[in-house]
Amino acid sequence: MTLAMTWEEWAQHDACALAARVRAGEVTAAELAAQAAAGVALTNPATSAVIELFDDAVADPARDGTNLDGAFAGVPFLMKDLGPTLKGRLQEMGSLLMRGNRAASDSHLTTKMRQAGLNLVGRTTTPEFGVCSSAENPAVYVTRNPWNLDYTTCGSSAGSAAAVASGVVPMAHATDGGGSIRIPAGVNGNLGLKPSRGVFSIAPYGSDLTSIVSIQGCQSRTVRDTATFVDRCRGGAPGEFMPYWTAPEPYATLIERDPGRLRIALSHEWGDYRAVPHHVAELERIGRFLEGLGHHVEWALPAVDIRAAFEAQTTCYITNFAQTINGLLALKGLERPPEDRVEPMNVRIWEAGRHAGYTERAAMQAVFNSTARGFGAFFEEWDIILTPITALPTPRVGTTEYLTISDEPSVHAWFENLWRNFAYTPLANLCGLPALSMPLAWNEHGLPLGIQAQAAQGRDGLLLQLAAQVERAIRGQWNDGRRPGVHVAAKG
């Protein structure tokens, strides 16, 4: 098969650059899709990141309504197998229970993506229902980190992270209910923005606490790709139950200017949770780098009850996931999750949360409110808070204590174990804050370590501005210019 460009050339293009070449008549959208499909063939035997390619969308990018005159001009884009639906396509949510499940219609965000010119060419892996920290169930698939195949990608946007990191596509869909965009971006060396609450719609589904906590987005390799994605895909559908943010100017324009001198707080002490010393040292190193860009940096932490916040967050997850499973059971005419088709921790979560009452949810929401107010007050004094993306090193594949195939009998103990590692991301979901993982640091075992920046609600543009300033300062060399061993442009 003759490709439109060499793999090295492909790897040097972000989505905006590929779209520019389509508009210039140098390549076609079909040629880009064919190259992405070839990239899957090269890398997927090692990473198991992509579940399915849509051969018809590869052959005919305009087939499903992709606007080839849109900003992305038919650039190939992979969809996480969870969240927005694609009419007639499989969406199996990482679960044996949902094998063969096909969507009846496109979601609102799917339509926005296609209007933006993204060619939705396939599905990427996710843990069952997006619940755990890694797409690892040998009965379904095991997705591996392209930097070192002995390690996990984390999750839940596992396959999208691996596909972007290995150079298959420049950008892919991701979702984030507690860090699921940012954590896999952080451990795979990608950019991952969790937008503010009220940026991306999940219509026609979930006009409730699900859409307050769980957010749509993407992972990419350049700030301008993420900025353009947000610009083109944001906005509510008719009848949304909450307001949606607007921006005074497109983020793709805003990022061309550096931010002013920012007040940046550093923290790795997050309630009861602490990062390992190596992660603290990397955070301090990046703090000094930001000082060198002219920002004020010091240690500070919001005055909130983080222990209470995590207890409320755990309640939210247990009750939300239980109702998600209830809805899927109802579709299939089942009274309880079949234990041969639903992973054991998800069965226990369903059992723990299915009878939750209004009093429990109201108490949870009260803590959400006080926590959000505390972070809001903090961001009156500070522009950004910076943390490592995880407290502990990336787990090896097969570390079952983080997985929903775990035999841990206690649901609360299982979540508490998650928080010890993934401490720094969930409260942004609770409070509706924007948060961005930047591939600036390294784990002690040589894998990427994202550095997370969080800002006040609605200040997504500020995070992108800071990231663009950093990107210019490092001459575009995220991950110090290194690439993972499993990569489309790898030699040998």
UniProtKB/TrEMBL annotation:
A Gene Ontology molecular function term of the record: catalytic activity
InterPro entries: Amidase (IPR000120), Amidase_dom (IPR023631), AS_sf (IPR036928)
Domain Amidase: 41-464
Domain of life of the source: Bacteria
UniProt similarity note: Belongs to the amidase family.
Protein name: Amidase
